[in-house]
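ingest -> validate -> predict -> emit
validate: passed (alphabet ok, no gaps, 135 aa)
predict: started
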Amino acid sequence: MSGRTSSTTFRSRKPSVAAARQHVKATLIDWKLGLLLDDATLITSELATNALAHATGIGDHFTLTLRRRPGILAIEVADSYQWAMPELRKPDGPLDPSGRGLILVDALSANWGVRPRDPGKTVWAHLPVTATAPR
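emit:
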């Protein structure tokens, strides 16, 4: 099955990260993409957490969109913060409590990136969809 899209908006609150993970789980089960659950929920958790931590913009929400295309599951988190784009960086040290989210996204996804939108940005990650396990 390909060519499906699911988009949901969440308030910028801590409980929304868990709600976003649950939405991904339910959607991927419905789309029969259960093999991608672990990676997709972790990527979603990181992107949604980044939206909460760093995206204090015009709106009080973020939008999670899942797109099933031939061979790819796209995970997108859009927010209204338009002044800085996220960058892959190394934590300052082993005790640094932040800076690992995009490292995880980079490691788990086939590719990822950021695109501007008006207002704000969309951070996206692609997971390959294959007939076998993704790893």
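The CA atoms of residues 111 and 126 lie 6 Å apart.
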